[in-house]
Automatic annotation (TrEMBL):
It holds the Pfam family AAA_6. It comes from the Eukaryota. It is found in: Cell projection, Cilium; Cytoplasm, Cytoskeleton. Its main location: other. Keywords: ATP-binding, Cell projection, Cilium, Coiled coil, Cytoplasm, Cytoskeleton, Dynein, Microtubule, Motor protein, Nucleotide-binding. The keyword Cytoplasm applies. The keyword Amino-acid biosynthesis does not apply. Residues 3-243 form the Dynein heavy chain hydrolytic ATP-binding dynein motor region domain. This is Dynein heavy chain hydrolytic ATP-binding dynein motor region domain-containing protein. InterPro entries: AAA_6, DHC, Dynein_AAA1S, P-loop_NTPase. GO terms for molecular function: ATP binding; dynein intermediate chain binding; dynein light intermediate chain binding. It comes from Protopolystoma xenopodis.
């Protein structure tokens, strides 16, 4: 609610007031039916006496709007206790099969706390509880895939995979220094990407691009990040090489898949610009005049790609600026639920072969 513009909140406040006023004046009719009709936005609709309205807020988040007083006065505030991140990390590590949970949990929490304090402030940085839990779950997947690797090495490798790609150049030595202090004498296990690097360099030459170390490194980092998350955001200024990075990785996947390398499938991309269409055209909307549902570009695309059972990867590319108007509806897709919920009640589940890039 607090991510809505103040102008829209004023309208919402009037709508909520209309509902609450009708609830206050609700009287049971002679048939015992606990419903009555009331005027809402110029239409008579049924009012259910058991309906409830709840608001969740994140007042400390950037870009949030303070609720107007006339809207605040209609609700009873309930404050939530700040969660114990160390305890949550300890329980998550235990559930993922790690030993020495107390020590490891304190180290992970300390790493993220010091990162918030010492690293530069970037819009895309996230060292909160959700990011911490995501790292631990990814570490659990790594542990099951490498049962003979020591727990500390798995955790260190997981934190590298989930964080290094998003760090600015000035923050890289600071972050590595914090990890070295928390895990003294422990080296990050090196993964051999020789074959991938050679293929990426070939793809650069095929596109008449210079295979610079920075370009190849970013493609490898995108590959690592994509392997750990189903939704990936590539952040950078105009002409900084964002589209080139994912296109090179796509070409590398196709080359390796054609060569029959295990773990690589053919990639088909589906690019779209979310700002080129309205929200209704993007997600779908009801035509009030005709009473019909009109499918959106994204909803139809996700339904098609998720229903396709071919053994190939489908990348949905959101090529354009990110803002809260269209990205809010993607929260349930980007988190562990992996579900797009449309306003008509339809739920489209993201399958393993479908990846989101933006």
């Amino acid at each position: 609610m607090d991510s809505i513009n103040i102008e829209v909140l004023s309208v919402v406040a009037q709508q909520i007031l209309s509902i609450l006023s009708s609830l206050d004046s609700l009287a049971y009719n002679s048939t015992g039916n606990e419903r009555s009709r009331f005027m809402f936005e110029g239409r008579m609709i049924q009012l259910v006496w058991s309906c409830g309205i709840f608001i969740t807020m994140n007042p400390g988040y950037a870009g949030r709007t303070e609720l107007p007083d006339n809207l605040k006065s209609m609700f009873r505030p309930i404050s939530m206790v700040v969660p114990d991140s160390t305890m949550i990390a300890e329980i998550t590590l235990f559930a993922e099969g790690f030993s020495g949970n107390k020590t490891l949990a304190k180290k992970v929490f300390t790493l993220y706390s010091l990162s918030v304090q010492q690293l530069s402030k970037q819009d895309h940085y996230d060292f909160g509880l959700r990011a911490l839990v995501s790292v631990l779950r990814y570490a659990g997947c790594k542990k099951r895939a490498n049962p003979n690797m020591p727990d500390e090495e798995i955790l260190l490798l997981s934190m590298n995979d989930m964080n290094l790609a998003k760090l600015a150049a000035v923050d890289l030595p600071l972050f590595k220094g914090i990890m070295a202090d928390l895990f003294p004498g422990l080296e990050v296990p090196q993964i051999d990407y020789t074959m991938m690097k050679q293929v990426v360099e070939e793809c650069c030459k095929d596109c008449n691009l210079q295979p610079a170390n920075f370009t190849v490194t970013k493609v490898i980092q995108l590959y690592e990040t994509k392997s750990s998350r189903h939704s990936v955001m590539i952040v950078g200024q105009t002409l900084s090489g964002k589209s080139t990075t994912w296109r090179l990785l796509q070409m590398a996947y196709n080359k390796l898949a054609k060569a029959g390398e295990p773990g690589f499938e053919r990639v088909t991309e589906y690019p779209l610009n979310p700002k080129a269409v309205s929200l209704g055209e993007l997600y779908g909307e009801f035509d009030l005049a005709a009473g019909e549902w009109s499918d959106g570009v994204l909803s139809s695309l996700m339904r098609m790609t998720c229903a396709d059972d071919k053994l190939e990867q489908k990348w949905i590319i959101f090529d354009g600026p990110v803002d809260t108007l269209w990205i809010e509806s993607m929260n349930s897709v980007m988190d562990d639920n992996k579900v797009l919920t449309l306003i008509n009640g339809e739920r489209i589940s993201l399958v393993e072969q479908v990846i989101r890039l933006q």
